[in-house]
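Escalated from tier 1: carboxymethyl coenzyme *A holo job.
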Amino acid sequence: MAGAENKSNAKLIFPDGKETILPVVVGTEDEHGVDIRSLRQETGYITLDTGYMNTGATQSAITYLDGEKGILRYRGYEIEELAEKSDFVEVSYLLINGKLPTTKERGVFGQALTRHSLIHEDMHQFFAGYPPTSHPMAVLSSMVTSMSAYYPDSLDRNSAVDLHITRILSKVRTIAAFAYKKSIGQPLMYPKNSLKYAANFLHMMFAVPSEDYEVSPILEKALNQLLILHADHEQNCSTSTVRMVGSSGANLYASIAAGILALWGPLHGGANQAVIEMLEEIKTAGGDYKKFIDDVKNKRDNRRLMGFGHRVYKNFDPRAKILKKMCDEVLAQIGVRDPLLDVAKGMEEIALKDDYFISKKLYPNVDFYSGIIYRALGIPTNMFTVMFALGRLPGWIAHWKEMVDDPQTKIGRPRQIYTGAPVRKFVPIDQR
Ligand code: CMC
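Tier 2 regenerated the structure:
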């Protein structure tokens, strides 16, 4: 990876008049950052940036996004073009290997994913151990951790990295579908090697041994597009977690499992489930979404308009734009009319004209419309975040690999400003 260039410097002046010169680094797209790596050693000061609003934790050549202009590119390719012209396997190859595959490379990669789709038979018993009420994200994360027990050579991070990458990419899909089958009490459906990646997932989710199941090309295409749109998003909460955990030397499976858990929260990947639950709650209460928006604006019960707002997108989220259009197209193609779509569109229309949302730069994000498409594909609400994880997997892998290969990587270890009690004497329990 070619590092960012250092062409100029910044001067920092402290309250005591002391000064320090810090290099300014510039990325490919003219992004500027102050390199503070020498700051503490030279001055004794650290920076404080709760929530990492301004902190670049790494240099990365994987994904570029400009939140003001609504730009998202994987390895230089526009997300709009990839969603239209590519498929998820090709995008996974691109993210992980840094270039689009040739026909031969695409064939070898796709074949490897097909051949590694089975999970160890003993792992089937794990599914039986979970209660039927288990959230599939709990099952997915623990099954991914368990994979490191079945492939112990993964504990040596220099051993067969490409093989572990293939395994995790292929088997997470199988685990996700098995978790669903288990939750509804149906037999687990083995993967079918004649099917491509997305079609195979739909087969494992929706086929039953007692009848034939033909994968709808409309659903297959929609799933490919959904997965592509989720495939990477540079240094977000889950990806940074993968890098942080991996920086300790933890293996690929452990690092990805940590990323899955970070994704689960409703402010991150869990928002897609939260959006549908919000829309359903509004519909069940009579459909008065104006009142809901009023509650949000008045912060009643700390309500938020789920699926709105983003840390980096301050104009629009390019993924949401594609998804809104896709939502109309997919529902029309499969002849589904979802009343929740009407509620969502009504809420969006009001929010986009409302000063509360305009002034805070809150726009629909990737999670606002994705759930409605997942519903149309037949995927249950509690599986939505699993779908996000399936899509984000190649991004997490690409970041883990980039971190491992980067000679500048150091264990992630932030600092803090201590605000607790000053030193005090221990008081024995009988004197307290
Ligand atoms: N509804 C109502 N108010 C909001 C919302 C929202 N969805 N999002 C932010 N705000 C308000 C927030 O209350 C705060 O107001 P104030 O200045 O009066 O205190 C202001 O906007 C700034 O919010 P913040 O939480 O400081 O902003 P952030 O950059 O830390 O948070 C966010 C970004 C995505 C967590 C937040 O917008 C949010 O909670 N959105 C809803 C959850 C959601 O849809 N998450 C999915 C994000 S996209 C998928 C992904 O990549 O994770």
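Residues 58 and 216 are 41 Å apart (CA to CA).
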